[in-house]
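Today's session is about reading a structure prediction critically. Students often jump straight to the picture, but the first step is always the sequence itself: look for stretches that repeat, for charged clusters, for runs of hydrophobic residues. Only then move on to the predicted structure, which in these notes is written as discrete structure tokens rather than atom positions. Here is the chain we will use throughout the hour.
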Amino acid sequence: MTETATFGAGCFWGIEAEFRRIPGVVDAAVGYSGGDTVSPTYKDVCTDETGHAEVVQVTFDPSKVSYEQLLDAFWQMHDPTQVNRQGPDFGSQYRTAIFFHSPEQKSAAEKSKAALQASGKFRKPIATEITPAGPFYRAEDYHQDYAYYNPNDPYILVCDRPKIAALQKVFPELFIDYKPKK
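Below is the predicted structure for this chain, in token form.
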């Protein structure tokens, strides 16, 4: 039996690549959530007018990786103190967000966020929104597995590969090589 988790942490390319490397993650799809426009496209979302965030919807096996472990990884993947931006990307579509799928996920996310804030790791407040999961709109095919198929893209080289390497150092036990099933 699998569960679903949905996270927004800036550009979805690198976040997808990071989640896909965690054992117990069965699938990860990039898309859009948290907005008002039905079936938005990437072009729509980039206007910063649809209300959507770029997100990764993670399907995971809770007998192999817990939601709490996914939350721990999520906090390492981005700067959760930045409001409506991550790195060079800015706009509400790049906000930090957890879209929960159950009361248990909501509770775990709130507890995890509070613990991170109390840890003193960040000087600024954690800006991550924790809201109910609404419709998930899968992004266009060319966005799926983008980091894998475009490893030499300058954005991937500069923004995402360093994050993947850092995550691997923090969570070596939660990291595997990934190859698409295509």
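Discussion point for the tutorial: The chain has a mean pLDDT of 93.
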